[in-house]
Amino acid sequence: MAKAEKITVALSEDTLSAVREAVASGEYASTGEVVRDALRDWKMKHRLSQIELDEVRRLVQEGADSGPGIDADLVFARLRAKYAVTAEE
Predict the structure, then answer these.
(1) What domain range is 44 assigned to?
(2) Torsion sign, CA atoms 4, 37, 39, 18
(3) How many domains does the chain have?
(4) What contacts 67, CB < 8 A, 6 or more positions away?
(5) What is the pLDDT of residues 36-56, one digit of tens each?
(6) Among 2, 16, 23, 60, which residue is least crowded by beta carbons within 10 Å?
(7) In which residue ranges of the chain is pLDDT below 70?
């Protein structure tokens, strides 16, 4: 196990109560275990957020690299004309 360092953390009454209940119920062996589990979850959430951000950046770049955009008014005008002809048939 890596070297451990003790720190002091202030928790709200509700949070402290939830931590103590998790230990009392046997879900966790100690308050430290609860905190370590919460930190593992936080680290995973942080990593997933970074992966999602990287994917959004990749998709934006992919869109930019795909060429110039088309004016939305022109696209909708073409669609209206196409479906107007379809509706007449």
Answers:
(1) 13-88
(2) negative
(3) 1
(4) none
(5) 999 999 999 999 999 999 999
(6) 2
(7) 1
